[in-house]
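Handout, section B. The chain below has 448 residues.
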Amino acid sequence: MPLTVVGLSHSTGAPVEMRERLAFTSSGALQRALAYFKDALRNEAECVLISTCNRTEWFVSSALEISSDSLIEILLSARGEGNLDDLRPYLNERRGHKAAEHLFRVASGLDSMILGETDVARQVKEAYATATEAGLCGPNLNSLFHEALRVAKRIRTELDLGRGAFSVGHAAADVARNIFGAGSGRTVLLLGAGDMSETTARHLTSFGVSSILVANRTYDRAIQLAESLNGRAIHYDRFPEFLATADIVISSTSSPHPIVTRVMVENVLKKRRRRDPLFLIDIAVPRDIESSVGELDDVYLYDIDDLQQLIESDLAERRRRAVHAETMIHEEARAYTARQKSREAATPILNSLRSKQRAIFASELTRLQKRLPHLSPEDWKAIEAFATAVENKTLHSPTVKIKEYAAGDAEDSAMKIAAARELFGLDNEEVKPSDEIPASMQAIGERQ
């Protein structure tokens, strides 16, 4: 059945207020939208709805002609809204091969705001699971989503597209990982409790640091942030004495002049007795740490420009890998589409061939049953199993060959399939199942 995807995302230029109008981020809201779809189309279509903060997209497979407007109107109805006009400029529709390719790109993180984002594969998997539970996935979307998740895993494994820093906090954590190897046993000291400090600290928490100290001019804010990080608040005027116990220092205050001086750090190094390097992250503007501190032995000092350079370098490398990923996705989507077309072209003749074969066996077995009425039920089960085995082995080679025909050039494929229909006499009803066939005979082949 034809495949369609319609929706909007950050890639279509939809601002956040438009994305919000079609967002179904809670499980209950998503289930309601699927129920609206199921009721509106009366089970005549398969569908999966992917809805995140950055995108809402219907993937639909149906023999019905369903306009993109109709699909979006279903979503708006589920949201209790009705005005489609202001959404229309941000909507995008893809069909067939392009729709499959788009899903592969989404699942692989190539259509994410952060190139190579890995969490999106989980979101795709959850959307598919929800649609399956709602009874809205059949053979077409089952095949498509299994393939999309396989391709995403291949790209993640072979290209590691999500590797590299994509934020200041991520970059800082990557540098810390390179310096220390592991975060276990390390102490982080936060100077300032703003958003940048918090974000960087959370990345370092995922790195595995053991303890976090928070110093801020407003002590209550230091307590609040420390509690959210499972850390400890200290009074701001005491932070110099805690520098000697810290391995990583993140400074992001609003001070108009440096608060960490070269002399201060030299004294700290004497107390530390060079046990480990001291990693200083200065993300304040103007800078909190004197630049000459970076000249000291066993000290690594990174300011916001240094971290931004790392981000740009990692992004350039990620873009290079993305070029290879795009090629892989294009090839995978073409191969998937070819397999689907082959299956669709081969299915009718294979169904006809198997139906005719079953009718022949059932007819002959019915006549045999009349000639051998003395056979026991066990004997007939053995004969039925024999007939089923013969059917499978007889049809194996024609099935393989017909699938090969279907996968070829369209015109050549049509000619060969027509010849096969004529060869097997499938365009006329030479043998029909008898009305007198017992239920046991009619079941032959259905147990495959």
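Note. Strands lie at 3-9, 45-51, 55-62, 92-95, 187-191, 211-216, 232-235, 248-251, 278-282, 299-303. Compare this with the example in section A.
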